[in-house]
Every structure is written in C-alpha cells, then in structure tokens.
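Data card: per-record layout.
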Amino acid sequence: MRRSFKFLLRPTVKQQIMLTAMLDDHRALYNAALQERREAYRRVKISIRYGEQSAQLTEIRADDPAGQGRWSFTSQQQTLRRLNKAFEAFFRRVKAGQRPGYPRFKGRGWFDTVTFVEGDGAKWDSEPRHPGATFVKLHGIGQVRAHQHRPVRGRVKQIEVKREGSRWFVVVSCDDVPAVPLPATSREIGVDMGVVHFATASEPIAGVTDEHGHIPNPRHLRTAQEELAAAQRAYAGTTRGSQRRRKAAQKIGRIHRAVARQRADHAHKTALALVRNADVIVVEDLRIANMTKSPKAKPDPEQAGVFLANGAAAKAALNKSILDAGWGVFLGILAHKAESAGRELIPVNLANTSRTCPQCGHASGENRKVQTHFACVACGYAANADVVGASNIKRAGLALRDASAV
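The structure for this 406-residue chain is written out next.
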C-alpha cells in the first residue's frame, strides 16, 4: 500500500524566509514554463512538452545561480511535471467535451507546495537520535525540525513541503506500507450517507451511532458561518493592496482551514469506528460532483429574456449542505482505513436504495413521500427512511460480493 504521513514543521525564522523564497522561485519557474508553452502555440502552433522544458533546467540554473540554481534539480523537475499534468488534464477535458479549464498562472497565494524525491534534494530522518527530534533535510535550506506525532511506516518515496497560512508542513509519501489487520467482528453493515444525519448504519453500533443507527451531522461550516460572514464583511470594507486587507484575508483563510481540519478529524474518527466494528462495509458509490451541479436555466418560451423557476435557490442550499458534510473526504478516508485494517469495502449503485421495500422488494417513489419516513404501499412495512436505505445498500453489496465470488 502507498500512504502519506503529514507532520507540522518547526522552522527557524531564517528557514521560514528560505522556505518562502523556495516557493517563490518554484512558482516563477512554473509561470515561466506556462508562458513559454502559451507563446509557442500562439505564435507558431508548436506544443512544447515536459522533456523539452526539463532539458532547459541546466542552462536556467547556470544563468541564475543565486536564484533557481540554489534549489534541488529534481524538485524543479517535479514543478514542471505538475504543469505537464495540468495540460494533460486540460486536453483530456477537451476531448471529453467538458469545460476545459486552461492552466492558469499561479499568484503568490496559489502555489504552496514543492515536491522532492527522497534522497535527491530531500532526506527524511527515519531514525531520529532522540524522541521527538525528527528532521527533514532540504537542499538549499538545511535540516528543518518536524513534529513527528506518529511513526512513518514503509519505504519513503516522496517528500512534499507545504505552506498552509503561516504554518509549514511536510508530507511523507511511502510505498510498501504494511497492513495491520484488526480482529474479526463477524459483522456486516451498510452505510447510507445523508444531510440530516451524516450517515446511517443498517444496524446500531454501540459508541458510534444512536439507537436508530444514525451518526450525527456536525455541520462544521454552518457552525462557523456567522464568524465567516463577519470576516468576509470586514474584508469587503478594506482597500485593495492595504495591510488591513491582507490581514482580513488571512482571517478568512484561518476560518476555512479550521473548518477543513474539523471535517477531516470527524471523518477520521467516524471511519475508524466503523472499521473497528465491522468486517464488511457497504457504501454508496456516490458521484458527488454530479450531485452538486447547479440546475440549468429554463428559458420561458413565451417571453424572450425571461427564465422559468428551476429551484436553483433550494438546490444551492442542498449543495452547500452536501459539501459541508464532506462525503468525499469521509469515503476516501474510509477506503484507506479499510484497506489498512484488512476490511472489505464494497461500493454499490445507489439507484432505488431509498425507495425499495426491504421486506417485499416493491420499488416505488410512493414508498417515500416524505424525506424521513418510509412506508411501503404494497405490504405496509414502515420504518425510518435512512435505515431502510442502509439496509438496501447492505443487501445490494452482499449480493454483489456473492455474485463476483461465483
């Protein structure tokens, strides 16, 4: 397995200055490479590839020894690869008929990561001399202290230095990370994601769900909404380029980062609790990007320039609640933890899972006339709608597993 371990860096003041300079130089390299590609295609319709730009690095470093020449060669190659991936994604979207999204120049606040190859420009201290005294050695900067709060397992392959606000982090990516199987529980559960409740299990789990199987939705963004709105109003009243505007923007960023940390913490704890309490976990195969799309405008055929009501406001509120719940973050973390623990995770198609009767199998939209209650029109079976959905998800996942085993 490949896993990443993220740790807080504790650089000195001088090292912070050097880290910032490193980011600025790599951002300048990224923007210059993007400009070269744009101009080459605009003027002579020539597409420049990564190999051609990477071959220029030796000359660039020789011409600017006090700038580009002081950083790791391989880290600069990784920056050029980053641009190349952006172009590959652009052309892939063009061919698929999607919104292309041409690669953009990176401003100072939009380039916060430099990637190194382990042993070539960066070296992780895999055997610290003293407990808590872990260092990462970076070319051009030296040994930067890292707060290692958990062991790094596997073989270190890649190191990323990342800035988040005023703090610095190191992300250590490792291959061949060994799994740590958990004891068997002989339990199989289905999990239905929701907005009213963060998730609902097909059966109650002590210490994880309530007596109905519901996991509460913490709604971190909604909790911080008042503070965030005040910070945004303060930002709107500042002058562009002023010190007050910069501080106001930093406050908005701090609030968003706090919400992201809270959301990730909740996802980690919930996923770990599920993995510890079930051998097989069945989840919905959600297409969150499609679920959170805005509805298309509906022109009025009788009046030019007038549009019919399309429920955009209600859909926007639903989209905001879905994104605040962080389903994608949770499902990604759950997949990693299940793999590490030797558990089986089965994604299933969510079609009809919320309107099919688990007792007689009758599927109809009439079975769920309200959001919270399920009542089968064929056999009269009634239950909580989310619990019914979780039960159907579990049944579909086990059927899929049995069919694939044949």
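Known properties of this structure: The chain is about 45% helix and 20% strand. The first strand starts at residue 3 and ends at 10.

See the next section for split statistics.
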